[in-house]
Amino acid sequence: MAEPLPPQYNPQETEDALYRWWEEQGFFRADAASEREPYVIVIPPPNVTAMLHMGHGLNNTIQDVLIRWRRMQGREALWLPGTDHAGIATQNVVERLVAKEGKTRYDLGREAFVGRVWEFVRETGGVILQQLRAIGASADWTRTRFTLDESLSRAVREVFVTLYEKGRVYRGHRIINWCPRCLTALSDEEAEPAETQGKLWHLRYPLAEGVEVAGLPRLPDGRQYMTIATTRPETMLGDTGVAVHPGDERYAALVGRELELPLTGRRIPVVADEYVDPEFGSGAVKLTPAHDPNDFEVAQRTGVATLNVMTPEAAINDEAPEPFRGMDRFEARRAVVTSFEELGLLEKVEEHTHAVPHCYRCDTVVEPRLSEQWFVSMKPLAEPALQAWRDGRVRFHPERFGRTYEHWLENIRDWCISRQLWWGHRIPVWYCGDCGETIVAREDPTSCTKCGGARLEQDPDVLDTWFSSWLWPFSTMGWPEDTADMRKFYPNSTLVSGHDILFFWIARMIMAGLEFRGEVPFRDVYLTGMVRDHLGRKMSKSLGNGIDPLVVKERFGADALRYTVVSGSGAGTDQLLNYENLDETFGPGRNFANKLWNAGRFALMNLGDDPRVPLDEVAADLEPMDRWILSRLSKAVREVTDSLERFRLQDAATRGYEFFWGELADWYLELVKPRLRGDMGDASRRAAQATLAQALDGA
Ligand SMILES: [Zn+2]
Ligand SMILES: [Zn+2]
């Protein structure tokens, strides 16, 4: 007889060895040539430099449960893993390392800096994939992908060039979100609004000398004025006009006349535009076209000039009056307000709560900035993606996220995809130094397609990281090549992702799938909530309230971790875990694993090395208790399957727990002991053995 199992479950001795055996046996590998029906999940690729946190723990455990369940059902299950190069995030990390040597990326130069990033990625990258193995993730590691892999880069280029040829990728001079610290453009989604207690300053702009209009108030010196309100007074240095509504009687006589812009000695026009809400404030708004997207649009329509008064670092530049030059934007804000006050032109200051956009990577306040960038025209992509949801070709779990998706797609704006970074996919565009031609090509050109000249310069920018990850469901399968994986495993089946990247990633993948493959990339989208601490706070390094999944594994076992997150996870709802009392949080999961272990141990000792008896052979000898547990088993299996099909993983976990602990362990195992000892005769013993084996297998 085999060695009896130790009486206490020791996950440290069991889990890793078992995992290694599974991996070596190739149990996680999917076969594109298989006849079985495929079931496919692609992992949301973590940043290549990421370290495992509880969010990954939750998200990947859910994927693993679904994959293992389908694999057990006999499907050809593929869980494809990989990592994301994470342009801005990774570049920031390496820039900080370089800064420790007292250098900047500019000191190193582009090539050397990118070399440093690759070096860093090779040394530290992929740690997270090892960590996912440690918590039992049964991904097909032979198919591990990286967004900068050669074949994935080819997919990126194919998509850029194709969209350009269709006129859907274009270069535009526009207001974009700019991070003055990262020194790059950001998409609208990367500029995250944060509720901020700010102020609304009401400033008075006098009418220009010689302009008189009936009905306007006067300053003590007799000049007439208009009042405008702003949350960013420093931008007035770049004002080039004031706009009123065309139907606003109060200002009708002023349209086409001029104001004197304080502090600058400049005269600026009053223009009329429908954009202005006459009911709001004074009904007059300042126009700073170089520093505000709405003002920029008004300026396009009304012909008002554009004046950029800030450096890329968001300091005041030389276009502004002398005293303000070189000031940081917030310093300039105080200085401008003080000057208005001294001139008697500050009408009032109000407290004002509003959403201020912050860089999603470094939390710096984003500055709208006018610059030349590449954009994707999104409306034509959004339409089919909306339709796919309305037709039910793609479903969200929980359903309510469908509305969020719809709202975003209906109001979608063009996507700014160029980044002033060095780490990422370089934009496949070249400019001819001789004739000025723009060349957009799948292969690097050696000469100008128009004049034959060889003085070509590649666009210095790289693409938004999400411009590669939105292709992930098919770029990982080898597209644009027609591969066996592509034919077998696309479309994927289910996507499991945090709801925080619904726009960044999920919606865009649906658009890309429909555009380039004519099919949705996946049928079901399971959205997880966030993992928070027991006080409901986001887990973060700075708060020190995180839980390290690997510490949990060390102390309680990976199964305790997995059981805990799955049994506590409702789709789309946040999960609260107490980081101060890990025993309370993960103890029940460990106890459950231990109970399973003990039942298995008990069974092995009682079944011994006897060949397993099929249930059919003992059908006549089954006793009521055997039939009872078998019927409970088939009921539990039905219910668990049903829960999983409806993506109710917590119900499945609870049901499995109830069956095992409440019915099998507490009742059947106790009742059956005398029979297993042979007290009731051999037939009864064999019937009990067969039933027990079946029930434990099922559990
Ligand atoms: Zn930033
Ligand atoms: Zn040329």
UniProtKB/TrEMBL annotation:
Localization in the cell: Cytoplasm
One Gene Ontology MF term: ATP binding
Keywords: Aminoacyl-tRNA synthetase, ATP-binding, Coiled coil, Cytoplasm, Ligase, Nucleotide-binding, Protein biosynthesis
Limits of the Methionyl/Valyl/Leucyl/Isoleucyl-tRNA synthetase anticodon-binding domain: 626-697
Domain Aminoacyl-tRNA synthetase class Ia span(s) in chain numbering: 18-569
Documented EC number(s): 6.1.1.9
Quaternary assembly: Monomer.
Record-given protein name: Valine--tRNA ligase
